Amino acid sequence: MAHVTIIGTGNMGQAIAAVAGRGGHTVQLLGRTDAATQVDGEIVVLAVPYPAVAEVLAERGDSLAGKVVVDITNPLNFETFDSLTVPSDSSATAEIAAALPRSRVVKAFNTTFAGTLAAGTVGALTTTVLIAGDDAEAKASLTDVITSGGLNVIDAGALVRARELEALGFLQIGLAASEKISWTGGFGAVA
């Protein structure tokens, strides 16, 4: 079983912790007041809003060396909800990977809402987590955590696919913010 550290105690952090717990994995959940607490997990989930990532990396970057680091962020403009804030040929995940060259960075969970992670379903479908990354072993470790927690995983490919995952996450958030879909709904996948 894996030991998963989740940095961020909001809805997504708690939902991901519940998924890992359902799979029998141990979880360390760290919030803002835990800045001095050591990161113990071999898988570390950055369950913070994209604007907070730089601070987390400044505080904890060295301690993430050698670990699987999971980026769940959607780098969207939270004032207008009309665009992504990273260059069109990049992604938040690519920026995180560049800042953490000794970590194995994976994109995941950004195309699911906390409600669908907690429920394990999107409508009548089992919740599917899309993942992307360049390290096959890192993706396999994360896939095990997710599938043992009762969810499905689709490997979307290499880390460069994070840009498309972020665009899909942006679309889903935009639809929910404009009340076209529910925050407890979202996209489902039939594989």
UniProtKB/TrEMBL annotation:
Keywords: Oxidoreductase. Residues 34-75 form the Pyrroline-5-carboxylate reductase catalytic N-terminal domain. GO terms for molecular function: oxidoreductase activity. Pfam families: F420_oxidored (PF03807). It comes from the Bacteria. The keyword Oxidoreductase applies. The keyword RNA-binding does not apply. InterPro entries: NAD(P)-bd_dom_sf (IPR036291), P5C_Rdtase_cat_N (IPR028939), STEAP_metalloreductase (IPR051267). This is Diguanylate cyclase. The lineage of its organism: Bacteria, Bacillati, Actinomycetota, Actinomycetes, Micrococcales.
